[in-house]
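Objective 1.3, modelling of assemblies. Example input:
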Amino acid sequence: MQRVVLHLDMDAFYASIEQRDHPELRGKPVIVGGAARRGVVMTASYEARPFGVHSAMPMARARQLCPQALVVPPRMAVYAEVSRQLMEVLGSYSPLVEPLSLDEAFVDMTGAEGLFGAPEAMARALQASVRERTGLGASVGAAKNKFLAKLASDLDKPNGITVVPFGAEVAFIAPLPIRRLWGVGPKAAELLGGLGLGTIGDVARCSEAALAAKVGSGLAAHIHALAHAEDPREVVPDRDARSVGSETTLDEDLRGEAAVWPVLRQMCDRVARALRKEELCAGGLRVKLRYSRGFRLMTRQCLLEVPSDDSAGLGNAARELLERFDLEEPIRLVGAAGFRLQTSAATRQLDLFGEKPREKRSELEHAVDAIRERFGDKIGFGS
Ligand SMILES: [Mg+2]
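Predicted structure (tokens):
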């Protein structure tokens, strides 16, 4: 299925809230930040930006550039409350919302075309709902992955909607400067500039080996993939919500499914046990692997058909997720986590409508837990 990822970023978030709440500030250059001599600009309204004022700038410098600006001290509690409303709106569109900060988030809308229409219509609906709830403007990017969606939301601020055309992503990003690639800071940009690379298209045409010679193999692989519009990272919801996880750093790097799977199964086993101990079931399972090369961390996740607290249920899901990783490269860390937690009692309610076998298996595993408590972890279970 074609993935559809939206990235929503509020426009001049703190300053816009101040203008919303204080009509006398509207249409004027407003700077939110500490007014003290050594204060820093947190956000500048769009009226202040043409003067060269931007966030993270020393306040003294901002005042020089724009003496008529109205400086307002931050009200973090208010901003946090607006952020909560924002995330609530996004959550009404998709269960897969990944906040990046108070004022921006990814929303995975894959499979929602039937409900909301094409990606552009989804973006418009999201933007309108956010304005309706918060009274504030946002810019939205829509694309087939996170990298592109985030890049897009920044291309037409404020109040912009940018869709990276599906199927023509590589051509769309080719003319953009390399600094738009995630992970390319000033230093890497300078090194790549030494190769004569100025645009993303230049990076796409360059061989990965040539990039690696300049910036190292980890970053080279990363930006080469991005320049080809590839970014496999999934939208990971509830970053701060509770999950029950277990992970292990391997003594020796492993590669190949036959080697990785037994470790992953053991992690699922531990997660299942931890869930049962707390009388919880997981509605989703996340698998993460860290590659040795470049320390890249990859996660894959899925929702379970029936929330589960047993090794077999989690293990089956984990095995399917494992197939979605590249297992040819050496792996140094394996982890699994259950998320979307709910009480076992709530899950058993569901079971009244069928699913007896699952409950039986859980009973068996509860018995095994009891034995393990007494005899330690050495006892194998199932296969
Ligand atoms: Mg913003």
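The CA atoms of residues 24 and 108 lie 38 Å apart.
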